[in-house]
Design goal:
With about 475 residues, the protein is α/β, with parallel strands linked by helices. It has a domain at about 270-479. The protein is about 25% helix and about 20% strand. Strands 1-2-3-4-5-6-7-8-9-10-11-12-15-16-17 form a 15-stranded mixed β-sheet, sandwiched between helices. The protein has a two-stranded antiparallel sheet with strand order 13-14. Strand 2, helix 4 (about 95-100) and strand 3 form a beta-alpha-beta unit. The longest helix has 19 residues, at about 400-420. The chain is globular, with a radius of gyration of 24 Å. It comes from Ganoderma sinense ZZ0214-1. This is F-box domain-containing protein.
Length: about 475
């Protein structure tokens, strides 16, 4: 099983467990398994009523026994992703973490649970040779932030870390993680965090800050409670902290934020190669532009995460109005416009308003390479409430609909032609549908009918050539 073929239901669990032949001491099948992904949802119900009656009933105890049995037998696992477990198929964390502690070759662990997790459970991970650790817990179930100190021994091996804890709490590790290159934490409410983050993770190349800033309305500041600072105060504090850390994070190349205001508060006044920001319907345009100006990126990923933006995209300038304000960012060469599935619905009808607005926004931008990424996968929304992470995931399109991808890719050349005609600098345009394919075109210009006017001409590349361009220009980071 791999990330592309996860175990999805109780029947999958039981079938795979039997495939391992656990009762046969001569079987070595389990020793060959290196990669497992569990994404257990409700069992699929056949449309035929007769087939439905013939489905075997797999009880909770039997399914849990198969789940633990699989982990207990596959002792040579290198990668394990427990992305989702059916709501009534919850394994006691003490049992699960005890089982995980025996996977002595495990290097990559992603775990998402709905049960109470204790420090003693987390401590079971401390002896594993983990290089990548991603933890997500449901609300009220995540450990207290101080309890994450139990994984401090992993500082000797970790290269990537993603935890449901606020960035300013990382000092509670009481440890330095010298080898960690990629970190994902949550933006705290009313707290500065740069100094502690830099000292805990001195070698970062990739920083991700999750969550949304709790401002009261789109132009105002958040309500300040006891001990909290205003957003402007935090930005000013961070700017001063960066001045005192001129040598910090020399290899920092990629910054990702789920809220542009987070990048604004970060106050990172130094160049990074790539900046990824999601647009929210209440994003102050000034905060968005300032965040990009701070970091002077070569590449910007612009994520449209509807339904956080409703109505016409041209109202109040909208997201593409904000994009057009980046015309002063001379370093900007590459733009990835990442449309998630709710945004894509606007492209499936007769209206292609987003494409017209994008073409207009590009008129004065110095962008040479444009990627339109159409993500038809599940939409995930993370919310931090009272020191707990709540992850809401829409699995409505968890199974990719190939027909949608075909329709979008068929329309892509029309979009590319429209966009190329609006820009004087574009040299290459791509439209990418994950789990399907990428189409791309080189853009050339020739003299048109009017004086000083150049007409754009498109030349479509083969798909392998498109991937070569994405790799050569370091754009695969966002694919």
């Amino acid at each position: 099983m791999t990330k592309d073929t996860p175990l999805r239901c109780r029947a999958d669990l039981l079938a795979f467990y039997r495939f391992l032949r656990p009762g046969d001491p001569s079987s070595r099948t389990a020793d060959l398994v290196r990669d497992l992904r569990f994404q257990i949802g409700p069992s699929p119900v056949p449309a035929n009523h007769r087939d439905r009656r013939q489905l075997p009933e797999i009880g909770q105890d039997e399914a849990i026994e198969a789940f633990i049995g699989i982990l207990d037998h596959c002792r040579r696992l290198r990668r394990l992703h427990i992305v989702q477990l059916e709501w009534d198929l919850q394994v006691p964390p003490s049992l699960l973490f005890h089982t995980l502690s025996h996977l002595t070759l495990l290097e990559d662990l992603e775990i998402n649970l709905d049960e109470e997790v204790e420090p003693v459970d987390l401590h079971q991970l401390a002896a594993l040779p983990l290089r990548r650790l991603t933890c997500l817990w449901a609300p009220r179930m995540a450990p207290q932030f101080g309890e994450f100190a139990a994984i401090a021994p992993l500082a000797r091996t970790l290269v990537e870390l993603d935890l449901p804890m606020y960035a300013h709490k990382c000092k509670l590790f009481n440890a330095t993680f010298p080898s960690v290159r990629k970190v994902a934490l949550w933006v705290p409410r009313g707290r500065a965090f740069v100094t502690g983050l830099c000292s805990t993770f001195p070698g970062l190349s990739h920083l991700t800050l999750r969550g949304q800033c709790p401002w009261t309305h789109q132009w105002g500041t958040w309500i300040v409670h006891g001990g909290e600072a205003t957003n402007e105060t935090i930005r000013e504090t961070h700017v001063e902290q960066w001045k005192g850390l001129p040598g910090a994070w020399p290899d920092l190349a990629v910054v990702r934020v789920e809220d542009p205001r987070t990048a604004y508060l970060l106050g990172l006044d130094r160049s990074v190669a790539s900046l990824s920001l999601a647009w929210l319907s209440y994003t102050p345009e000034s905060a968005f532009v300032t965040a990009v100006e701070d970091t002077h990126p070569t590449c910007v990923e612009f994520v449209m995460d509807l339904p956080t933006y409703m109505g016409s995209m041209s109202v109040g300038g909208g997201p593409y109005g904000a994009l057009s304000q980046l015309d002063s960012i001379s370093s900007l060469q590459y733009l990835v416009v990442h449309l998630r599935k709710f945004s894509i619905q606007m492209l499936c009808g007769e209206s292609v308003e987003p494409i017209h607005l994008l073409a207009s926004a590009l008129e004065d931008l110095p962008v040479t390479h444009l990627v339109i990424k159409l993500d038809l996968g599940p939409f995930g929304l993370h919310v931090m409430e009272r020191d707990r992470v709540h992850t809401v995931v829409d699995y409505g399109q968890d199974v990719y609909n190939a027909e949608d991808g075909v329709k979008l890719l068929d329309a892509a050349e029309t979009w590319a032609t429209l966009i190329a005609g609006s820009s004087r600098t574009l040299q290459w345009i791509a439209v990418y549908v994950p789990r399907d394919r990428v189409r791309s075109w080189e853009v050339s210009r020739q003299a048109g009918g009017e004086e000083d006017e150049l007409e754009a001409a498109l030349w479509e590349l083969e798909e392998d050539e498109a991937w070569d361009v994405l790799s050569a220009e370091s754009l695969r980071e966002f694919m």
